[in-house]
What does this fold into?
Amino acid sequence: NINDFLTKMEDSTISEDDKKSLMGEAYFFRAWLYANLIQRYGGVPIIKDVYQLGDKYDATRATFDDCVSFILEDLKLAKENLPAKDKAIKGRPNKDIAMALEARFTLIVASELFNDPNDPAPANPLTKGAYSKDKWNKALAANKAFIEQCGSNYSLPAKYSDFWTNQNSTEIIWAKYFTNTSGDAARTCKAQLYYAPAHLGGWRGCEPTEAMVIDYEMINGKKFFEEGSGYDPVHPWANRDPRFYDT
It folds into this structure.
């Protein structure tokens, strides 16, 4: 769908500003989708063309490193075309968001999971990349660029709950907003379906796990199992980190 959109935009008669912004969004989403794919499956076919019935389809899986190059090229195009944060519609990709994805993605690519110095030339280049110290340099450059160019736009609010109660929270880089223009189904029915107690056949899509409970420290910063934590098994929810209660 994205490739089809990009192809048709070449002959579109909409304004150049709108065309540039929309193409930037398309490049961003293609990069975002591929970044998610290769973290889960390794190298996947790189599809840039739009196939019609009867076309020869012989695409094969690309290497992990080739997919990384493709994603970074799309992010470069996204950054060139997307508007700045203050010129963008809330919730839609902007230049900051593309830079943030590049910063996170390059760190993942540089990590030992995909860039292992103990396996410099992997037997299966589909599942991980060839080791290169330069991947860390790219991650450093991407994260440094984001901090220097966008860092002043974001900060941790005083209240932990700010990012889910305040649409303008300074902690949010990219979010999906449920607004009046999204329709009632998005704002109410969907929320009621996802969150317990069961309402309209609730799906219980956001239930806390015991692992998440354990992750929250006690009020003194210690894990519940650490000596001196003050944990009382009779009152397991007492004296916990305030963020525990907010969550």
Q: What stands out?
A: The chain has a mean pLDDT of 90. The first helix runs from residue 2 to 9. Residues 116 and 131 are 6 Å apart (CA to CA).
